[in-house]
Amino acid sequence: MRRQLVCLAAFGLLIAACRPAAPTAPSTVPAPSSPIPAPTLAASPGPLPTPQPAGLAANAPPATVLSATAEPSETAAAVPAALSANTAVPAPSATPTASPPRLIIPSLDLDRPVVTVPIRAGSWDLTGLDDNVGWLETTGQKPGDVLAMALVGHITLTAVRRGPFADLWKLPVDAEIIYRQGGTDYAYGVKYKVSASPDEAWRLYVHDGQTLLLVTCSEWDYATFSYAKRLIVVAHASGQTAAP
């Protein structure tokens, strides 16, 4: 319970680290009807991207909203004072295993290492995430854990450089997601997508080790120059095989 309370404060700031993107503009789908736990990310200010898709599955359960702050460059409000733009922050370290875990999404041609996103001064520090996928500290550490793993990725890195989760909204139901760790490929199938606001950190703590959560920013707001929502992809375990 204590680690969840600590992360609630970190949640809003975490989202501030997402960078504005300019993905293709799909039509926004209506939000689901029943609450589903999911993670969130903060956004940082930067060049104006094209509107982001809501990323909600038409028949997904209802969801809450995860809010964000401006995106392109980290703003002081988006990160703790001790981690302002002028403060040198080390890049997140790889999740401790013989060989760093990897997230593979065949349909998106994505294959990226998974690094740890630590909590610093009450907030998840995405400063050094760059084009890697990050595991949010204090969520499930591995497949089958007590809690679901929550993985985050930027939607854009600069005005012209896409992030690893730029096309996350395109994932259809049953799309395959693979988490490779310790010589084993843990397969998951997408169940639905949820739109949430940044202040709902509780959605990142799902008591089901068979669930995997992928999170990024969505719905760019030109008025506030920030991402207003967080896109959460909820996937469930479908099996495991030896890694190639």
CATH topology group: Sortase, Chain: A
Q: Count the strands?
A: 10
Rg, Cα atoms, Å: 16 Å
Largest sheet: 8 strands, mixed, barrel
Average pLDDT taken over every residue: 72
The CATH homologous superfamily: Sortase
- Strand adjacency order, main sheet: 1-2-5-6-9-10-8-7
CATH class equals Mainly Beta
Number of self-contained structural domains: 1
Beta-strand proportion? 25-35%
Per the principal axes of the C-alpha atoms, what is the gross shape?
globular
Q: Mind telling me which CATH architecture this is?
A: Beta Barrel
> Helix- and strand-based class?
mainly beta
Report the span from N to C terminus. 38 Å
Poorly predicted regions are 4-10, 21-97
Order of helices and strands: HEEEEEEEEEE
Number of helices: 1
What percent of the residues sit in helical stretches (DSSP H or I)?
Answer: under 10%
